[in-house]
Design a protein that fits this description.
Two copies of one chain form a homodimer.
Chain A lengths: L1 E6 L4 E10 L2 E11 L6 H19 L3 E5 L7 H20 L3 E5 L1 H9 L6 H12 L11 H17 L2 H14 L1
Parallel strand pairs in A: 1-4, 4-5
Antiparallel strand pairs in A: 1-2, 2-3
Chain lengths: ~180, ~180
């Protein structure tokens, strides 16, 4: 099963495409779609939509994993992000992807065992699970890591309890 | 020039397609796209996107007129509406439409001369200007009227001062 994880945004939209092989996860692609600040919101959203379409054509994911809509203190930014999120959901549905939404605490809990884990803990586990495919620390930014994290969350939840136990063991071994 | 006015929403999305002929406005289509509450948000947004695409293919508008993003007290509803709005903006940009965003006060001011006009005043002017094409009072709902209002706003702003004066006179005459 291939999972496209997305951290939605209209300026930077993080993405990660993950494939599960037994207890191994392979990162097929990750990065961020960056839109041009000089363009109108409509053109930026359209550019995002075009890039997502290309990503999906290229990597043929079966599912989209995305965090649930959140209600931030900064309403203006949150509403902008919601617009980008709408574009992503509509497009994924149009392409027939399964759509899985997770609360941020579920993502944290699934990856680290702690629903209140901080960004560093989550990043640590993302690097541990898919480290090989990831850009060097300096280049992999928050949105890219967050996108991979939600994809991993979906993938881990789909795994059998046995696989998850094996995973926990293998993560332990590598420590 | 044909203008597609939209009052964005994920449950009901009001629309109106308007064509200007001198000082007359002809309503080519209006109504609301209604999505199925039983479906997921992603499928509803995709259905909205498909309906908009059909509307645009059928009526070939040159411009999209839409109200600016607003920050409502009900954050959850507002974020849902923002997701629908993102779908609409991206799609209109993809179809090459000119995109015009107006503050609610601008729409009210352009139609009634009063930026703080109430819904009844705006509805009165919408009916006066495009009354012939509109469904009977009982059937034309808020979102449909709001969509036509923002389309009229765009159309009126594009008109020359002379045309606007003629319009004012003709509206006066019909009173």
């Amino acid at each position: 099963v291939r999972v496209l994880g997305i951290d939605p945004g209209y300026h930077r939209c993080g993405y990660g495409v993950l494939e599960q092989h037994g207890q191994q996860w392979r990162l097929l692609a990750s990065g961020a779609v960056i839109t041009d600040r000089a363009q109108s919101m409509a053109l930026r959203l359209h550019a995002l939509s075009r890039e997502l379409d290309l990503l999906c054509r290229l990597h043929q994911p079966d599912a989209l994993a995305i965090e649930e809509l959140y209600f931030a203190k900064n309403a203006k930014t949150a509403m902008g992000v919601a617009q980008a999120r709408g574009v992503i959901l509509a497009q994924a549905a149009g392409l027939g992807l399964t759509i899985a939404e997770y609360a941020p605490s579920t993502v944290k809990s699934q990856l680290t065992g702690n629903g209140a884990a901080d960004k560093q803990q989550v990043a640590f586990m993302v690097r541990r699970l898919v480290g090989g495919g990831l850009s060097p620390a300096a280049d992999a930014l928050d949105d890219e890591l967050d996108a991979i994290a939600v994809a991993l969350c979906h993938s881990l939840r789909g795994a059998t309890p046995a696989a998850n136990a094996l995973l926990a063991a293998s993560v332990g071994r590598r420590r």
